[in-house]
Amino acid sequence: MRQSVFKRLAAPRMSLFEKYFVALFAAVVLPLLIAGGSEAWLSYRDRRAGLNSLLDTEARAAASKIQDFMEGIRDQLGWTVQLPWSEEPDDKRKLDAFFLLRQVPAVLSLTLVDRAGKERLFVSRIGLNRAESGEDYSASPAVQRAREERAWFGGVTFQRGSEPFMTIAVSGNRAAAGVAIAEVNLKFIWDVISAIKVGRTGAAFVLDRPGRLIAHPDISLVLRADDTATKPLQDLRAAILARPGEAVAGRDVTGSMVLAAMAPISGVSWSVVVKQPAAEAFGPIYAALWRTAGLLVAGAALAAALAYWLTQRMVRPIRVLEDGVARIGAGQFDHRIEIATGDEFERLAGRFNEMAGELALSQERSERIGRLKRFLAPQVAELIDRRGDEHMLDGRRVEAVVVFCDLRGFTAFSTRTEPETLIRLLGEYYDALERAATAHGGTLTNFTGDGAMVLVNAPVACPDPALSAAEMARAMQMSVQALLAGQRARAHHLGFGVGLAMGPATVGRIGSEGRLDYTAIGNVVNLAARLCSSAADGEILVDDNAARAIGSRLPLVALKARIFKGFDGPVSVFAIRLPTLKPDSASVGNAVG
Amino acid sequence: MRFVPSILIGAGSRASRRDFIMLVGGAVASTVPAYAQRPPMPVIGYLGSETPDRYASRLAAFRNGLAESGYFEGRNIEIEYRWAEGQYRRLPALAKELADRQVTVIVAPGGAEVALAAKAATSAIPIVFEMGGDPIAIGLVSSLSRPAGNLTGVSSLSVEVSRKRLEFMSEMFPGTKLFAFAVNPASPTAESQLKNLQAAATSLGLELLVLKASAEAEFDALFATAAQERTGGLVFSSDPYFAYRSPQLAALAARQRVAAIMQSRDFPLAGGLMSYGGDFEQSHRHTGIYAGRILKGERPADLPVQRVTKVEMCINLKAAKALGISFPPALLTSADFVIE
User: Which tens digits make up the pLDDT trace of B27-60?
Assistant: First the structure.
């Protein structure tokens, strides 16, 4: 029953362990998450800004390399237009031209025109050389623009739909020096562009103003001269132009994500785009994020472990208490709650242990009394219960007053009376006896049929046992006579006699394992029994000892000495006079029930 | 199956490999699976018009190109070679063999004949060619930037610059009007080169003595005629057949005291007077790169035909001295290599 009560209590909605665990875990993890998250975000932003400037720098560097390449060709061409033309064929210039072709592999052919715009020399790697052909170039944009701007970079053309070429024209310091016009094969930029490395695997490419691919590390992409194939690169450039100063993520021709930045190449109005695979560019960021994530996970795990440990520490004594209380509640009073935390829990456990100890004591007592109650007369048992000391039942020798009493004519009465009535009458009779015994400190040791034996001064000591016993006897006589008076109308010849003797007796518990009695042994017991037998209805007979102890405090009448079986010689007998003696008391029979 | 002893192959059926492994068990198991589980190596069919010996430098360049693409013969690529050993008539049959062998890619370097033989053999297996001259003109591809079909490759400028060789000869011998021009009538580009040369001769005000040779036996006569007819010198058309026989031709030129110019730098290196033509090392290297890219899965149609832009001039001062002539400053200035 108690067990089940505890079980019902043991299913809370949320256990203390969970509450503490969640609270402690959150207390560590939340700040960790906030710190880690903001750290990751800040480092991402820094790194992104770093990437912008890094790629921007790379783009500028690449642009300047390509510009150097183009300007290198321009400067080399400048050497061929240093001196004014004479009318005569100029062999020196021819050598200069050959020398230029050898020095600058990108130049496919070179045309030199004089101040009038007439072709004076043409040298080529593939075609036949010409001298003094006199062809008129004065109207060609190359010559006109070169004269205006000193150097002119023409548009890109794709020879045979594949190879990118451009015309570069340079005019001399003086108009007389003429103009040098070179056909330049832009495939040679490949040497420059393929040498540009952005990061580990990044690369650069060049688009002209309309967006045609001029240089790319994969030369075949250039030679394909296919605007649809290179569309992603144009889109990339458009995206960069839309967000100036920022590295832009997009897709390259292979469809993979790249981060790209751009720089213009002045003079030719091309743009160099540098690109780095997004995975590589963001690699350090991802690595940092992973690191942060790893630390967060490790931190969370540590926090969980810590929270678990702390919670366990906090909850364990509570669990121990709960368990201990449950055991004690279930009747296990010898259980002791072991907590050595040195705090309130330990104190609480101590209190519980004390409580268990007291519970154990009281249970032990109630068990003992229960046992005694089973075997002893209830009055004796109650007495022990009240006193809480069993040792008073131990055997000893005392000056005891033994009181016997019984009903007269009871046997005859019982044979003609209904059992219910009989039992009820006996019940009332015993109640009366008990009340009287209890009121005067007597101990009702046993009932036998209609008789009873009461001890005074044992087991409970009494200061004046004789007087108490005499008064008790009087009280018994009066209450029983009153009881019998009601019955006499229909139940005739019922009487009640009491015998009382005082003397040394051995008192104590006697009996077997299954049956215990508290009783007195000694001559005085026999004497009291004889006196009782000898007493007439309504009479209280007292022996010499008791009478002497009572003295004059009660009205005593000395009767004629009587002979009792087992006693040598006549025994002096006294009778206690009752306040109102029944008129027919002397006529009542002396039969013992 | 190479590792399986032949006796066991003979005894077993097609399923013999597994049975064999089960039979032989642990003894071989530790070494066999490494081979057995690896996918078969891709195979390049290499079609050569000459002998491995004559191709040695070209092959080296080709392997360099392959290596640039990450392929190494014997390690992650196998190469099946077919050599015509100078008998160009055999090329179509050899090309067919490679096609039947179902190689992953056919490499056809060393001239238009080889490329055409490969093209005729298959229209499915990718082909990478290497040649001088215009691949459109001889019908190999329809466009340089988008070579539709299963072919792509590298062309050098050797054929285009045939006329420049005549020009250099004329620079060498300014007073001479007659020059000999050697063509190989068996070459697919012979016609166009001859036309090209005739036009150049006309514009330079020169005359051409056209000499034909398509076999080694005719080489003697070639030089003899050039010498007898008092030509200023002999200009070789761009033809791999001549180029591969540079040492032989250089020796004949020295013996007959004929000044000669060829496309390949092998010629002056072997004692000839000079050369002007495309850089074969570059063209063969690019062939290797392209073969590698195709092995990696690119389609030949997506790979534009590359023209090797570099044209180099090589002169041999010793040969000039032996002939009792000297190079004019224009040629000395232009020369990329000078052999002292």
Answer: 444 444 444 456 688 999 999 999 999 999 999 9
CATH number at A532 reads 3.30.70.1230
Assigned domain for A203 exists: yes
Question: Closest to A126 (Cβ–Cβ): which among B145, B161, B204?
Answer: B161
**How many contacts, defined by CB atoms under 8 Å, are there between A and B?**
70
Which domain range does residue A505 map to? Answer: 383-587
Question: In total, how many domains does chain B have?
Answer: 2
Spatial CB neighbours of B161, under 8 Å, sequence gap ≥ 6: A125, A126, B238, B263, B276, B277, B278, B311
Average pLDDT over residues B213-223: 93
Residues of A in contact with B144 (CB under 8 A): 160-163, 223
- Strands A451-456 and A107-113, bridge-based pairing: unpaired
Give the domain CATH number at B272: 3.40.50.2300
Q: Find the domain containing B145 and state its range.
A: 43-158+279-310
> Residue A318 corresponds to which tokens in the numbers above?
């509570």
Which chain A residues are closer than 8 Å to B306 by Cβ? Answer: 219-220, 223
Residues B169 and B227 reside in one and the same domain:
yes
Q: How far are the Cα atoms of B83, B122, B141 from residue B97, in angstroms, in the given order? A: 11, 10, 22
pLDDT digits (tens, 9 = 90+) for B61-119: 999 999 999 999 999 999 999 999 989 899 999 999 999 999 999 999 988 899 999 99
Residues A428-454 have a mean pLDDT of: 86
Q: Which among A98, A161, A187 has the least Cβ separation from residue B330?
A: A98
**Does residue A2 carry a pLDDT above 70?**
no
> B175 to each of A13, A131, B178, B179, B227, how far by Cα in Å?
116, 17, 10, 11, 17
- Provide DSSP, B199-218: HHHHHHT-EEEEEE--SGGG
> In this structure, what token pair is assigned to residue A349?
């456990």
Task: Nearest by CB to A126, from B164, B293, B333: name it.
Answer: B164
**Coil vs helix vs strand at B235:** strand
Contact B50, B245 (CB under 8 A): no
Quickly state the pLDDT bin for A425 (edges 50, 70, 90).
confident
Question: Alpha-carbon distance A36 to A10, whole Å?
Answer: 40
Query: Is pTM, for the whole model, over 0.90?
Result: no
pLDDT at residue A202 greater than cutoff 70 = yes
DSSP 3-state percent helix, strand, coil across chain A (nearest 5): 50, 25, 25
A488 lies in some domain: yes
At A120, the amino acid letter reads: R
Other C-beta atoms closer than 10 Å to the C-beta of B74 total: 8
